[in-house]
Amino acid sequence: MTRFRHALILAGVAFGASALLPPAHASADTIDKFAHALFDSSGDSVGMDVDVEKIAGNTTIDVQWHDVRCERIDTAYVCDYVWRSAFGVPVEHFSFSLTGTTTVAADLPYQELRRHCSTVDEQEECSTAPETSGTTRIEVTWTASGEPTRSEWTDEQGVRRVVKQVDTTVSGSAFDRTYGGAPSYGVVHRVRTVDAS
């Protein structure tokens, strides 16, 4: 999963390219489930991007978190960056719905990277601290905010895909904080793959 793929989905380029979809499985008829949340706030420096996927019965979560704080100190413009990330972490709970609430919960081991940058007269100098690790508890809830939409097509190999998706509101907690409210948003979608043969 990548931020770019889900950005395309949320922007409305809904599944127009095969690269945005899971690979076809050997089974003749499979159903995969996905949930994406982007937590953001115009009045805060912290944001978090969450992707959950259930493919072939295996459910994993990706999380990317950031905190960016900048200020002017004398003649310097100083920024401190913190990034935390976790990819492919198995979840202990995932409940999916296109019409109600979708929830996920997991104990999340993550990597942390810190960077300090100072800019004076357009000359930037940065230092990066050694990478560290930690663990946090993450819980996220998606609540459907409309009716699901449906689309389908058949690719060159005769594999038919039926997609249902719905926009959602989102709320959650992780890294000792709570998240939610505008402009945070989410989407959940289900992909049914049918081998025409």
Relevant terms:
eight-stranded antiparallel barrel, 66% strand, mainly beta, 1 helix, elongated, single chain, disordered N terminus, 197 residues
> Which stretches of 5+ consecutive residues score pLDDT under 50?
1-20
Which structural class matches the secondary elements?
mainly beta
> How many strands in all?
12
Mind summarizing the main beta sheet? 8 strands, antiparallel, barrel
- Enumerate the strands of the largest sheet in spatial order, edge to edge or round the barrel: 1-2-3-4-6-8-10-12
Rg estimate, integer Å? 19 Å
Helical fraction: under 10%
Strand content: over 45%
Task: Explain this structure.
By secondary structure, the chain is mainly beta. The chain has a domain at 3-64 and 92-104 and 136-195. Helix content is 5%, strand content 66%. The chain contains one helix and twelve strands; from the N terminus they run αββββββββββββ. It has one helix at 3-11, and strands at residues 29-39, 46-55, 58-73, 76-90, 93-95, 101-120, 123-128, 132-144, 149-154, 159-174, 177-180, 185-195. Strands 1-2-3-4-6-8-10-12 form an eight-stranded antiparallel beta barrel. The longest helix has 9 residues, at 3-11. The two termini are 28 Å apart. The model is unreliable at 1-20 (pLDDT under 50).
Could you outline the blueprint of secondary structure elements for this entry?
Layout: H1 3-11, E1 29-39, E2 46-55, E3 58-73, E4 76-90, E5 93-95, E6 101-120, E7 123-128, E8 132-144, E9 149-154, E10 159-174, E11 177-180, E12 185-195
Antiparallel strand pairs: 1-2, 1-12, 2-3, 3-4, 4-6, 5-6, 6-7, 6-8, 8-10, 9-10, 10-11, 10-12
